[in-house]
Amino acid sequence: MERNRDLIIWILNQVKNCEENLPVFISKGTQYGGACKMIDVGKYNIHDLYQHALMIRDDGLIEAKEFERTSDGYFSVIVYRLTSKGYDFLEINNNQRKGISKNSLKRSKNMRS
Fold first, then answer.
1. Which of 79, 82, 74, 105 is nearest to 16 (CA)?
2. Rounded to two decimals, what is the model's pTM?
3. Domains in the chain, ordered, with CATH?
């Protein structure tokens, strides 16, 4: 499996944007007994989400707990919060995207002149 930067950013944003300020539960087919926000895995493969959540936990971007494979065959991870390192990662990513946008705007203005 290769690291998917878009998936990492998606997971971090799911945690950051949780309005209820609850832990985020990444799962398919499993329920968690505590108060948390279940997220829609959307287009992503649950196994890839699970692996990436563990990677970014190991990298120190999030605080998370891994649940073992359940009887229904799925993996689960509960993400409690972003760390300072996780917020820094998102900020750097946002600044890089803004920089690209500003450069693109400058080029398009120069083309019109």
1. 82
2. 0.73
3. 5-112 (1.10.10.10)
